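Lab notebook, bench 4. Still working through the backlog of constructs that have no structural model yet. Next entry is a single chain of 133 residues. Request: give me the structure tokens for it.
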Amino acid sequence: MNIAIVNEDKVILVDGEGLNFDFTLADNIWAVQWNGTTGEIEFSDGTPNQEITDFSDYQYLVDAYNAEKQRVADEEAQAAIDAEAALTYADRRRGAYPSIGDQLDMIFHAGLGGDEFQSAIQAVKDAHPKGGN
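Model written out:
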């Protein structure tokens, strides 16, 4: 697992997936990098970087990242449920119809649009065939 913790930005990246949230880390730590077996602590106060072979002192941050990631996912899922519940009968009915373009295409292919409609649509199809530029 690759982990990057950037204190000033309040961001934690786990395997390239970042999340911004508030967490606590010593003020003089700029960043912690971890590649799964070794890592480095970068300091903001002139202290030389420190190599590490044990991530356990920072595991609480990954635990906090996972908890925040789950909280955000739960919040998004609830928002989707709430949005669905807020739909009116008219909203649901409107969403169930095929698009206007698909409806017109059905009319054209069924030959139900009348001669003027059929001719106008066929002229466009002939002028702009599928696969053309």
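Notes after review: Residues 55 and 66 are 16 Å apart (CA to CA). The beta strands are 3-6, 11-14, 17-20, 29-34, 39-43, 50-52. Flag for follow-up if needed.
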